[in-house]
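Translate sequence into structure tokens.
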Amino acid sequence: MYLFSNLVFGKISRSTPINYVMISVFTLCESYLVSFLCSMYTASSVLLSASATLAATIGLTYYAMTTKEDFTTFRFIGKGIISSVIWIALTVSLINLFFIRSSIITMGIAALFAVIYSVYILIDTQMILGGRHNQVQLDDYILGATVLYVDIISLFLKLLQLLGKKKDD
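Result follows.
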């Protein structure tokens, strides 16, 4: 995602007043979407998912900071594998949505995507920290923050789908 964002918004994301406006608008839109989705779940489910996301993010960040493994190279080596898994999961999701409607398949796919987002948190954290094979340039702090933010929010939403209990309307 970082490379795509850099290609599309490269110059815009580096010009000072515009990049702050862009990240503010994006954050506002994203927070509105997440708050809408959270309103469909009980408060305890949202709190449990947020706590699990916080714990996972702290643990993954600590691991990314202290390990000698370079996960940034996995971004390019594992790109085909992750893309294949994502396409298969999306295809199975669509088949499940329209034909099967199995909650077990839905939970399995949510768990799979939670793992994928956790891997991306590792990769993107190491890219932001630098000192690895691939790293975010100093001028790309807005893109780095946005990519990590999207990873964390996506992990939260998948954990909410897994752990959450919907409100009875």
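Note: DSSP finds seven helices and no strands in the chain.
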